[in-house]
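TolB-like translocation protein, Actinomadura syzygii. C-alpha cells?
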Amino acid sequence: MNARSRVAVLTVSSVLLVAVAVAYTVFHGAEPAPARTSGGTGDGRRLQLLTNGRLSYTSPPGSRRVTPVECDRAYAAAGTVACLRPVGALSAGALVVMDAGLRERRRVPLTGFPNRLRVSASGRMVAWTLFIDGHSYATTGFSTRAGVLDTRTGRLVKSLEDFAITKDGAPYRNRDANFWGITFASDDNRFYATLSTGGKRYLVQGDFAARTVRTLAPNVECPSLSPDGTRLAYKSAIGGDPKKGWRLSTLDLATLRTAPLAETRSVDDQPVWLDDRTLGYTLQLSDGKNQTWALPASGGGRPRLLLDNASSVSPVP
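C-alpha cells:
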C-alpha cells in the first residue's frame, strides 16, 4: 500500500470513529456532568446554594461544585448546614442538620412543605417555616408552622404558636395566628419573625428562652437581620395587599424607619445579607427557573444577576 492509500485509509477511519462517537452520544446520552460546573459569582464570593434542588458551592473563580445532597431549602452558618428535605410521594419531609463536611448530626421529622430556613450566625439555632395548607402567602386560607431547634441543648420548638403573644402592648390570643420567616440575633435568644392574624401581618420580636413575642411594626414579612444587628431586610406587600406582590425594604431597628430598595420587581423571598452592604434574594422566572440577584442595602445602586439557576443562597466564611 502506497503512502497516498495509507492516508486515505486513515482519513476514512477517523471519520468513522467520529461518526460512531456521535451516534453513541445521541442514542446513549452524554456522560454525567462533572462535579464542577460553571456558575460561580465571579467576584471571589463563596456561597452555599441549591442547584436544581442539590446542595452546591461556588468555588471561585466562576465555578460551582454540585453535591448529591437534595434539599428544598438550605442554609449554612459557622459550620452548621441545615437542609429541609423534599416531601416525596413515599416519604415525609425532615429537617436535617449537618456539619461543614455534610455529615448528618440531627434529623427532625416534619409535616408540611418547606418554605423558609435560617441558621443563626453562631451556627447554634436553626429555624424553619413550613406550609401546612396552601403554597403561597398571596392566597387566602393558608397555614404555616414555624419551628426552632437549639443544636447545642437539643431543645426543639415545633411551633411558635405556643409562645405568648403581646400585640400592641396587650396580651393577645387568636386561633388564626401564623408565624413565618424567623431570623436570630447574635445572642441566640432574641429573634424576629412575621405574625399573621386578623388579616394583617406584623413584625414581631421574640424571646426564645421566655417563649414570648411582641409586635413591633405592621406589614413586615420574612425579616433578615443584618450582621451588625441594627437593620432588618424584609419584603412588604404592595399597598398591604399580597396579591399585588412584594417590594424589598430595610428597617432601622433603633428608629423603626423604613427605606425602600432599588428592586422594583416582586420578590417573594426571605432576603439574605451577603455582607454588611449587600443583599441577596431569589427570583423565579415564568418557566420555573430560579435566579439569585444581589442588591445594595443602602437603597441606591441597581440589582445585578449574581447566580443563574440558584436559590437558597447563604454566605460561607
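Residues 42-315 form a domain with the Neuraminidase fold (CATH 2.120.10.30).
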